[in-house]
Amino acid sequence: MSSKVKAIEPALTSPFLRIAGFSGFGFAAVIVLANVIMVPTGLPTTGADTTDAIAYFSTNRGVVGVASALTPAAWALSTVFAAGAVAALWRSDRERGEAWSLVGFAGVLLQNGAFAAVVALRLALADDPTGVLWTLHDTLFTLNGVFLALALVGLSVSGRHAGLIPAWHARLGLLSAALLFTSATLTPLVVAHPGPLGLLGLTGWLLWVAWIVAYAVTLIRGPRKGESGPATREFRRATGE
């Protein structure tokens, strides 16, 4: 292999990838914590009655404010996590003439932007007696599943091609993506008819969190023994295995 090619190979034991892995853990922890803070207080589900939503956000300003204060950290952590994944996968993508890791990175950035709008709407709902913002909130919240699906598909496909993640991990990501994309596609029904359809997005989101944690572990310690691919071979060389 030429020295030029070696120069662009990722070192899967680099400090940055470890930072990215721990950022993934942090991102998962923050988004779960934000929900742990809000859900027990009666956070309205998607499609809930507008009157109930207005009542909740006007009487729980403090809770909403605390949960919202966590989200900037979540966006920063998710960006570092996704950048680390791209750093580990980009050489493999280039060798294949693909850019799946960039698709995943774009999905993470887009979901950060979409959810920033969701959080802003939640804060604004406390002063919205008409409830118009609630419908916008629900619609944007559900449509955000498209961006999560992009992140999941991009990093799962790239990670599997590179041999960085095992097959079960890639399948977990694709299943989560399918559920979230289906939920987003059915947004009018999910918002207008709350009930079983809402479970699509919820299940997809829970799988998304599990997928992030598993990916974070991989970025910190590298691929498992028995996995193969450009990223894995580089890890073996770097560690002398």
Strand-residue fraction? under 5%
Poorly predicted runs? 1-11, 234-241
Integer-rounded radius of gyration: 20 Å
What is the terminal separation in angstroms?
19 Å
Fraction of residues in helix: over 70%
Q: Tell me the total number of β-strands.
A: 0
Shape call: elongated
The arrangement of helices and strands along the chain is HHHHHHHHHHH
Structural class: mainly alpha
Largest sheet: none
Q: Provide the number of structural domains.
A: 1
Give structural notes.
The protein is mainly α and 241 residues long. The protein has one domain (14-239). The chain has eleven helices and no strands. The protein has helices at 3-7, 15-38, 50-59, 61-96, 100-125, 132-143, 145-162, 167-185, 187-192, 198-221, 230-239. Helix 5 runs antiparallel to helix 6 and helix 8 (167-185) runs antiparallel to helix 10 (198-221). The radius of gyration is 20 Å and the shape is elongated. The two termini are 19 Å apart.
In short:
The protein is an all-alpha fold and 241 residues long. The chain is built from eleven helices and no strands.
